[in-house]
């Protein structure tokens, strides 16, 4: 049974939708950021502050390698997981990649005031940081098998759309 892998920018609902989807499908849910925290004993902001982004990406790579060998999971990834082509290859080998997307303004409304987003905690205008980072990552998110705009629908509706997509893959013998 293939994994269902949620990719996309921070604040698009990967964790919320992932938990709901896993519950509806009777699958185990894994959040890669929480898994990195469990393995390292540090929060993501601590890793970025103490060890830097390179160390975080290294830990993320190890977690992806481990999870991609398993089956039947719903995996919520960090927003930058797709920046490493090896991560994408591993996740695609045994998974269906679903990209959750949203307009930059909606992302801004969802993440403003949250201090646990290291890549957005730099000095400067948050809206501009989101737009710049989102534009830079857009081509990487294009690796998804299916994309859903989560901006104006509930997590339950997003889960329904994913389930309908998976059902269509099964019907066509692609899953």
Structural summary, described in words:
The protein is of the alpha/beta class and 175 residues long. The chain has a single domain, classed as 3-Layer(aba) Sandwich (Rossmann fold), CATH 3.40.50. 54% of the residues lie in helices and 14% in strands. It has 8 helices and 5 strands, in the order E-H-E-H-H-H-E-H-E-H-H-E-H. The protein has helices spanning 14-25, 32-40, 44-51, 53-68, 85-93, 104-111, 126-141, 155-171, and strands at 3-7, 28-31, 73-76, 95-101, 146-149. A 5-stranded parallel sheet has the order 2-3-1-4-5, sandwiched between helices. Helix 3 (44-51) packs across helix 4 (53-68). The radius of gyration is 16 Å and the shape is globular. The model has no long low-confidence stretch (mean pLDDT 92).
Question: How is this structure best summarized?
Answer:
It is built from 8 helices and 5 strands, in the order βαβαααβαβααβα. With 175 residues, the protein is of the alpha/beta class. Strands 2-3-1-4-5 form a 5-stranded parallel sheet, with helices on both faces.
List the helices and strands and how they pair.
Elements: E1 3-7, H1 14-25, E2 28-31, H2 32-40, H3 44-51, H4 53-68, E3 73-76, H5 85-93, E4 95-101, H6 104-111, H7 126-141, E5 146-149, H8 155-171
Helix pairs in contact: 1-8, 2-4, 3-4, 4-5, 6-7
Broad shape:
globular
Number of strands: 5
CATH class: Alpha Beta
> Which class of secondary structure composition applies to the elements?
alpha/beta
Content of β-strand: 5-15%
Mean pLDDT over the full residue set: 92
CATH homologous superfamily, by name? Answer: P-loop containing nucleotide triphosphate hydrolases
Order of helices and strands: EHEHHHEHEHHEH
**CATH architecture classification name:** 3-Layer(aba) Sandwich
Quote the CATH topology.
Rossmann fold
**Gyration radius from CA atoms, angstroms:** 16 Å
* Spatial order of the strands forming the largest sheet: 2-3-1-4-5
Q: Kindly state the percentage of residues in helix.
A: 40-55%
Q: Count of DSSP helices?
A: 8
